[in-house]
Every structure is written in C-alpha cells, then in structure tokens.
Design goal:
The protein folds into five domains: 103 residues, no CATH class; 352 residues, Glycosidases (TIM Barrel, Alpha-Beta Barrel), CATH 3.20.20.80; 101 residues, Beta-galactosidase, domain 2 (beta-galactosidase, domain 2), CATH 2.102.20; 73 residues, Sandwich (beta-galactosidase, domain 3), CATH 2.60.390; 119 residues, Jelly Rolls, CATH 2.60.120. 12% of the residues lie in helices and 37% in strands. It has a nine-stranded mixed β-sheet with strand order 1-19-20-21-25-26-29-32-31. With 800 residues, the chain is mostly beta strands. The protein has nine helices and 51 strands.
C-alpha cells in the first residue's frame, strides 16, 4: 500500500533537490477488508480494528499511550501523576503487573497500598484514561527476576514454558488479577481496552537474582513458540481476563501467533543493558523512515519479525521515551531524540504511539529483598522519562506534547493515510546524516509531510538549500517558493499538504507544524509553530480564497497561489476568508513558545495558554476549573488566547496585566517560599540535610537538586534507604514531600561513593567536571552544588 516515488539525488555534489510523487498513493486503500468490531460498551461506545488502524465510534483513532507502574509510585500521588499524563496528551495508560510485587511469598497475595490494582484502574476511569494491562507473567521492566517471584526458582518447574506445573501457578496468578479487575473491561463499561500476555517471549530473559552471583543463571527467554502465548490466552480467558484486544511484543524474533493478538513494537536508540563496559553503540535505524507495506526492506529484516507486518496495524508499546541508566552505561537521552523517535514512527505508518516509560517511579522494597535487577539502582526507576521518578517534568514531556496536540486534532485524518517513501530509502543508512530523511502520509493530494535530521550516536550537520517538489493529482508544488529550506541538526517536523481549512478553502502547504485548533463562537483558529531555525512559508490555493490578510509578515499574490511569510510570535496572525465568507484565523508561534503552550476547555470555550516558565510548568483543566503548577519563582506569568472567561475565579490569585499581541497576560502570585533548611558535611562523602517541620508551608513540593561527581549516591531516612542514583552528568533530583511527616523535622543523610579513575563509565562524564585522581586510584567525591527548588500549585475554580 506504499507508493514509491521519491527521486533523491544522493550524489556527493547534490543532496538538495528531492521529489515526492503523491499521485501513486491514490489506490492505496483499495481492496482492504472491512473493520472488525472488537467490543461495544454499555454506553454504546464501539472499538473496532481495521487493516491499518483502530476505530473509536466509527472514527479512525491513533491511541497515545504511556507506561506507568502504580506499584512503583505512592498511592496518595496517583491522581496527580495521572493528571500530568492526561495534560501531556495521553489517552491510554499501559501498566505492568509485577508478579513478585503481589505474591512475594507463595500463596500470599497482597493488593494493598501501592499494589491496589482495582483502585488504580477505577481512578483511571474516573479521569477519562483507558488502560492496556500488561500481566506477564514475565514482564522484565528491570524488575527482580523479570517480575517472577523468587519462590518459583525453588519449585521444580520450567518457567516461561507449557510445563503444566508452571501453568498451575500462572493460572492462579491470572485468576487473582481477574478478581481485581472484574467488571472493569471496556465491554463492561470500564477502561481496560486490552491485555498484553508475556513480554519479549523467545527474545529476552532476565537474571535469576537468587543465584550465588547475580546474573550467573538466567530466567530463560522461552522455547515453546506461539503455542505458549496461545496457552496463556486460553488461561487468561478461562479465569475472566476477557478483553476486546490482546497484544504481544513482536520485536527481536519474539513469537507472534497467527491469530488473536495485535503485535506491538519497541524502539530504543540507547542500549545500556549491554554487558560489555567498553561497548560503543552504533547509530540506530530508528530514525530512518520505513513502511510496513514494504516488509521486504532491510529495515524490517533487521528487526527479525516473525509475522507478516503488512497484515496488522503498526503499533508501539515501547517507544523509548528515555532509558534507565545501568551501572556500566549512563547515557543521556536528549529531548530531540524522543521527539524524533515518535515523529519518525508516525511518518512510517505507526497508528498507535506507546511510550516506555512515560512516568518514572521507585522500586518498592520487599520483605526479603530489593526488587531491582542487579544492573540498575536499588530503588530509582526514573528512566529519564518525560515525567521523572518524583513526577518532575523533563524536557521530553513538552517535546512529545507537541505531537500529542497534533494527533488530538489531526489523528483521525492521519490514521488511514498510506506511507509514501523514496525508491532509494533502503540505501539511506543511519550514518548518512547529510541526506534529507522524509516521508509522506497522503491520499488524493492531501496529507502530511514528515522530515527529520536527528540521528543518535552520529555527528550531524545542518541541511542547507533543500528544495522539495511534490507531485499532486492536479499539479505540482515547490517547497519553498523562495530559496531553499534550512533544517537544523536535530530538528524533526510535520508539514501539512492540501489541508482544508474551511469549505473549499485549502492550505496547499506550510513549512510550519500544525499545533492545534481552537473552536469558539463559530470561529476557527489554527495554531502553528515554526520548528527551530526554519523559515515559515504558507501557500493558500487562490481558488476558494476570497481574501488573505497577514499581520506580522509579508505576502505575495500569484495567479493560482497566495503566499505568506509570517514572523513567528505572539503578534502574528493570518486571516483567510473562503468564498462563502467563512473566516479562518492562523496563529504562528515560535517552537519555544509552542513548547510552553497548553490547550484547555473552560466554560464551553477552547483556550491556548502559554506559561512563561523554564519548562517546569504544567496546566490541566477539569469541569471544576484550572490547575497550574510550576517550579522556581513564586510568580508565574500566564498568557491566554482568547481572553480567559469571566466564570474563572481569579480574585487573589490571578491578576490581569493587559494584552501582549493577540494574547492576554495574567500573573499568578504565591507567597515566596522561605528557606528553612540546613546542610552540613560531617565527612567528605556524607551530607546531612535538615528540613524544618513547616518546610512545605505554602508550596506543593520541594525538589532537592544535588550536582556532584560520584559513582553512586544514596539517601537514608532514619537509617533506611529511601532514594538512590548512579552518578551522571545530570543532577540527582529527589522530591521531598513524600518523606516529610506532619509536625516533624526531616533529617536526610546523603552518602556518596567515589568513581574509580580507570572506570569505563567515565566516558559518560565531561572531562572538565572530573577532579584529579587521589592516591588510592579514585576520583574524590565532588559536591558542586546543592539546592532546594520549591514547586507552587494554584487551582482556579470555575463558577457557573
């Protein structure tokens, strides 16, 4: 179903001109089977599966899913965690159920506190989030034994096999899960859409931590092929785990049954699980566009997939939104990587975005052992996820939100569109960073163009003077009209092609990315942003456009096309009027402004809010009103387009400060947090932090930032390990509110171990940060800075 019509000139002297023929995509959807109904809820909602995508209530749907482990996060903060995930644009939450967390001792199931699966699922339902339940029994997730309980090692069973003795325990475990989620599946009116069985079966195992040297004996990867997954499916259904959809992991030679499962994919550009401490990663293939309708390509062969990829929707459950550091490898995942990973997947035909992890957490401590795999910290499972171990926002959270806002508005248009790839796509290798990487998803001259310049583990370069020629059924386009495109290294973007703005009013193309759409009082406003370093150009079809006005830029009228070159900013506005008199407004923001934007619904209207913070603010709207949370200074400026409704209670919290361009400016003011803490260093490798009992007065949380050069950091409360990390280039961050007890002073002891001067892991540190070696062959622990950062929270109620 993929057209192949790019004509890239890859010679050494010309890598600037590219041609894309969208005419070949016209017949892509012909001859496909009718969608299959999966389930109908008591409320009349439907879920169906088409050849390439899912449908909700008959409309094409691209789910946006993120992994979160409730048993690794304090129950009292679940709601806030889910609120941030929802605000980030997620519609589904995927969760592992760790067998060892709920049956650490044989026959004694514990579903209390953070393990209360039923309470978590019901909370997701209350907050409008749906669930993919990943029950294993083997799940991995850097958990002890891959999630299998220690006591299974002492039983004479062959785990991850069709050994009836093993399946006896699996059935009992599945039955316990089924009791927890009874009545909570989609067809019963609940939020559970699917169940994943096993994980990486016949692809990967995990160390049995009970063995005398961790890792000397491994949980096997499995050898019973699809028969084992089919047997697990039978067991799950027999005990009541009856879901509309069953999924399995499909990468790396994993077993995929011919029927009954939706295969799901993974992508991890960074691979710190490699056992060789001197391992040097190569550029991964994940940033090259591909098409599932061309399964014979080298890209798909390299994945060792054991199923016909062209028969199923292209779905991800594990796009690496970060990575967990191991003791041997401590890479930093930049936000441009995470954004490009998801964007390239979408441009390659992916119709289900699923991130692992989306929200980090902390391993619980068992009755008899720690629950971590030996390669990772005892407790920390931050994963460099968009939302960190303590719910802190990492830059990738905002970069991904740009894509999620786009999908919320344009996902139903995108889902059915086939992929258009260049004929020479297979010849483009990850190391070839001087070649434009692009693809289109389009049909009948309408769709989206995807471009990417990011590549992991490679030296990149800006691409200058790029020209694209797009062949359409009714003619051709040249992008841009003037000069050539300049794409900075690390940029990934989506451009619209043939986008209908109103009845008969078409945007032929734009070199700006659609962000979202606001609809209020019969008026439509489209918000775009300019990817970093890219000059914006808009081209409107003259036919169908009665008038075009540009504020904050210039325009040019030609016989068939009206061009505009807006300067991104808060003052910039385009207004296009259709022949019928319908007016559409277009805003054009900078990328930095877009990264701080939130779309909310208040009082029946839609608003674009821009928080003027350094990436630490998040905004969420519910029927009750608006929640705004930020770190740093006690004052936050908030911009709104259009003006906030009068029904929002602002007295004493929010002051209106006039207009800035098209936006209204407001100021949030809280009482500044007063430092009530002390530090002392009784030993070179020990720090004592004392916080007053009233330290949280007036703030929502306090985040301890420790910038140090060390091998391992550990935090103790009353002699008990409560936090840890492996040293890296990034500060160690600890959220303190979970440790503070009402009316009691907090004393936290931080202990650090030094790096060895010959440790291979030093390559992950910049040389200028490293101290001179001591006589014992270690690098002295160096505390560069320790600071506390307050987090403020405001809730603005909405009066009716």
């Amino acid at each position: 179903m993929s057209a192949t019509s790019w004509q890239p000139r890859l010679s050494a002297d010309d890598r600037s001109y590219y041609r894309l023929d969208l005419r070949a995509a016209e017949a892509a959807a012909e001859g496909l089977p009718e969608p299959r109904l999966l389930a109908r809820s008591p409320q009349g909602e439907t879920l169906a599966l088409a050849h390439r995508y899912l449908l909700r209530n008959g409309q094409p749907w691209i789910p946006v899913m993120g992994e979160f482990h409730p048993s690794r996060y304090p129950r009292r903060y679940w709601r806030e965690a889910l609120q941030k995930m929802r605000a980030g644009g997620l519609s589904l939450v995927s969760i592992y159920v760790f067998w060892i967390h709920v049956e650490e001792e044989e026959g004694r199931f514990d579903w209390s506190d953070n393990r209360d699966l039923r309470a978590f699922v019901r909370l997701c339902s209350e907050m409008g989030l749906e669930i993919l339940l990943r029950v294993g029994p083997f799940v991995h997730g850097e958990c002890r034994n891959g999630g299998l309980p220690d006591w299974l090692y002492g039983r004479a069973v062959a785990v991850r096999s069709n050994d009836e003795r093993y399946l006896f325990y699996v059935r009992r475990y599945f039955a316990e899960i089924a009791r927890q989620v009874r009545g909570l599946f989609f067809q019963e009116g609940g939020p559970i859409l699917g169940v994943q069985l096993e994980n990486e079966y016949m692809h990967a195992g995990a160390p049995w931590e009970l063995t005398f040297r961790p890792g000397s004996e491994w949980v096997p990867r499995g050898n019973d092929g699809t028969a084992h997954l089919e047997r697990l499916l039978t067991l799950a259904r027999e005990v009541g785990l009856e879901a509309p959809l069953y999924t399995c992991t499909a990468w790396g030679g994993a077993a995929v049954p011919a029927e009954g499962f939706l295969p799901m994919h993974a992508a991890y550009p960074f691979t710190p699980w490699e056992p060789d401490p001197a391992f040097e990663p190569s550029p991964s293939r994940e940033f090259l566009f591909r098409s599932p309708q061309q399964p014979e390509s080298d890209w798909w062969r390299a994945g060792a997939f054991r199923y016909p990829v062209e028969r199923y929707p292209y779905a991800y459950c594990e796009l690496g939104a970060g990575i967990q550091m191991t003791y041997l490898h401590r890479p930093q995942v930049p936000p441009e990587c995470t954004q490009a990973l998801a964007l390239v997947a979408l441009g390659s035909g992916c119709n289900w975005l699923g991130y692992y992890m989306y929200h980090g957490g902390s391993n619980p401590v068992g009755r008899h052992s720690f629950f971590n795999e030996f390669t990772v910290p005892r407790l920390s499972y931050d994963f460099q996820a968009p939302l960190g171990e303590y719910g802190q926002l990492h830059p990738s959270y905002h970069h991904l939100r740009l894509l999620h806002l786009f999908l919320a508005e344009f996902g139903s248009q995108l889902a059915p569109l086939p992929v258009v790839l260049p004929p020479g796509a297979a010849a483009v290798k990850p190391q070839m960073t001087g070649v434009l990487r692009c693809a289109a998803r389009a049909q009948q001259g309408q769709g989206f163009l995807f471009v990417n310049t990011y590549q992991d583990h490679a030296v990149g370069q800006d691409l200058e003077g790029i020209t694209l020629e797009v062949l359409l059924p009714e003619g051709r386009l040249r992008l841009p009209r003037e000069g050539g495109l300049r794409l900075q290294w690390g940029v990934s973007a989506i451009f619209p092609i043939g986008l209908e703005l109103a009845n008969g009013l078409y945007l032929r193309y734009a070199t700006a990315q659609p962000l979202t759409v606001l609809r209020a009082d019969g008026r439509t406003t489209l918000a775009f942003f300019a990817p970093e370093g890219l000059r914006t150009e808009f081209a409107f079809a003259r036919e169908g456009c009665q008038a075009l006005a540009v504020v904050g830029g210039r325009m040019l009228e030609e016989r068939e096309t009206l061009y505009a070159w807006p300067e991104p900013g808060l003052e910039t506005r385009l207004e296009a009027t259709s022949l019928s008199g319908e007016t559409v407004e277009l805003l054009v923001l900078s990328q930095d402004q877009a990264l701080r934007c939130w779309k909310v619904k208040l009082a029946g209207g839609e608003y674009l809010l821009l928080a003027e913070s350094e990436g630490t603010a998040w905004v969420d709207a519910e029927e009750e009103g608006l929640t705004i949370c930020w770190q740093g200074e006690s004052q936050l400026d908030l911009l709104s387009y259009p003006r906030l409704p009068a029904t929002l209670e602002k007295v004493g919290l929010l002051a209106e400060c006039g207009q800035q361009g098209l936006f209204w400016r407001y100021r949030l003011q809280r009482t500044p947090w007063q430092a009530r803490w002390s530090l002392e260093q009784p030993e070179p490798q020990v720090v004592r932090l004392r916080l007053a009992a009233e330290a949280l007065e007036g703030v929502h949380d306090l985040f301890l930032h420790v910038d140090c050069v060390a091998d391992v950091g550990q935090a103790f409360l009353d002699g008990r390990l409560v936090a840890d990390c492996f040293g890296s280039e990034q500060p160690w961050v600890i959220g303190l509110k979970r440790f503070l007890r009402p009316g009691q002073e907090l004393e936290l002891i931080l202990r650090f171990t030094p790096l060895r001067a010959d440790a291979p892991v030093l390559r992950y540190f910049s040389r200028e940060r490293l101290p001179a070696p001591a006589s014992d062959g270690t690098l002295p622990v160096t505390l560069r800075a320790i600071r506390l950062v307050p987090e403020y929270r405001v809730q603005l109620e909405q009066h009716r």
